[in-house]
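Example for tutorial group B:
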């Protein structure tokens, strides 16, 4: 059977990685700096998670029920899908924020992406989320 990937080299499969290279790979990329707007958003998000308002495994806890309940069924479905994807990002953000390291580029980009997607959704459907 012919190789499916001509770029795959079986001789390097499971090859040991030098300790200094592994250490370098495990370090988060430095240089991330949250904007003031993103820092305020992250602080509010972390407060809601820490006080239990947002449950990291229940997308419904992200919803502003006063607005959500008034939406037509189709828009409720869209809000539900967005809540699920947003909560996945929030779990990663919370893990990065709680990690014993400075803010990194990954966290900076995730917070900005979450805030911007939330704002875009709410421009179309109203204040659907509590964050």
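The residue assignment follows.
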């Amino acid at each position: 059977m012919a190789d499916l990937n001509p770029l795959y080299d079986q001789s390097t499969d499971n090859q040991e990685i030098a300790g200094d290279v592994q250490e370098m790979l495990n370090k988060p990329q430095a240089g991330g700096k949250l904007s003031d707007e993103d820092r305020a958003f992250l602080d509010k998000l972390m407060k809601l998670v820490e006080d239990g308002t947002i449950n990291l495994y229940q997308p419904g806890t992200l919803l502003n029920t006063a607005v959500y309940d008034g939406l037509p069924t189709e828009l409720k479905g869209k809000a539900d899908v967005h809540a699920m994807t947003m909560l996945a990002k929030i779990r990663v953000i919370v893990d990065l924020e709680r990690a014993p390291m400075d803010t990194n580029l990954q966290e900076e980009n995730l917070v900005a992406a979450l805030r911007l997607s939330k704002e875009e959704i709410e421009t179309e459907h109203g204040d659907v989320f509590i964050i």
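The chain has a mean pLDDT of 89. Compare this with the pattern of hydrophobic and polar residues in the output above.
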